[in-house]
Amino acid sequence: EAGVTQFPSHSVIEKGQTVTLRCDPISGHDNLYWYRRVMGKEIKFLLHFVKESKQDESGMPNNRFLAERTGGTYSTLKVQPAELEDSGVYFCASSSLPGQGTETQYFGPGTRLLVL
Amino acid sequence: GQQLNQSPQSMFIQEGEDVSMNCTSSSIFNTWLWYKQDPGEGPVLLIALYKAGELTSNGRLTAQFGITRKDSFLNISASIPSDVGIYFCAGPETGTASKLTFGTGTRLQVTL
After folding, report:
1. Lowest-confidence segment of A10-14, B17-21, B50-54 by average pLDDT
2. Number of C-alpha atoms within 13 angstroms, CB side, residue B10?
3. Distance from CA of B17 to the nearest CA of A (A)
4. Is residue B72 classed as helix, strand or coil in its secondary structure?
5. Is B85 on the interface with A (CB under 8 A)?
6. What Cα–Cα distance (Å) separates residue B84 from each residue in A4, A106, A110, B38, B75?
7. How far, in Å, CA of A23 to CA of B107, rounded?
8. Given pLDDT bands bounded at 50, 70 and 90, which one contains residue B83?
9. What secondary structure does DSSP assign to B2-31, as a single string?
């Protein structure tokens, strides 16, 4: 069974440009999460989808970030326009059970974003 | 939001040594998770703890859920080179279903 995949693995863009990150969860997983780790800090929650609906987007930093999960399969996270402080590693995770907090979240390898 | 403090931040040990790291919080967590991140990869769940006082092992790894529900520790016995990586504690934020709060991580380096 394929794990969580993310694309691209790395992205280097200039301040002001737009970047779109993609996440393909494990097949059949209704729960999809986005997290971010800024250099040297903890991994922080961004948002949680259940199928195509946003269950919790309390961690989204600001309105420059837009996450979608049309059709309830893969998800995209767009940053527009990108700022220097958006640099970091963006992780996607998925899980199968209703989000009761005890199911295992399987993480993808992350997208390393560098904004210059 | 809730915060998790991990210590130490980094460790340099020799192969064969035992390792201990811990995680503390000022607030209660009802579940404690320990993840490991290998270079270039995403975090992988090592151990999950669901009850205060619970002691759980996974091979050479042992983790405990503190009685106060505000701390947890992870021990690795007889370290090997593939133990290198960053270890994170995490837990679902109180009042949420699955929004994980992570610690800042402990970076482990193992020398031969």
Report:
1. B50-54
2. 4
3. 26
4. strand
5. no
6. 22, 20, 19, 7, 14
7. 26
8. very high
9. ---EEE-SEEEEETT--EEEEEE-SS--S-
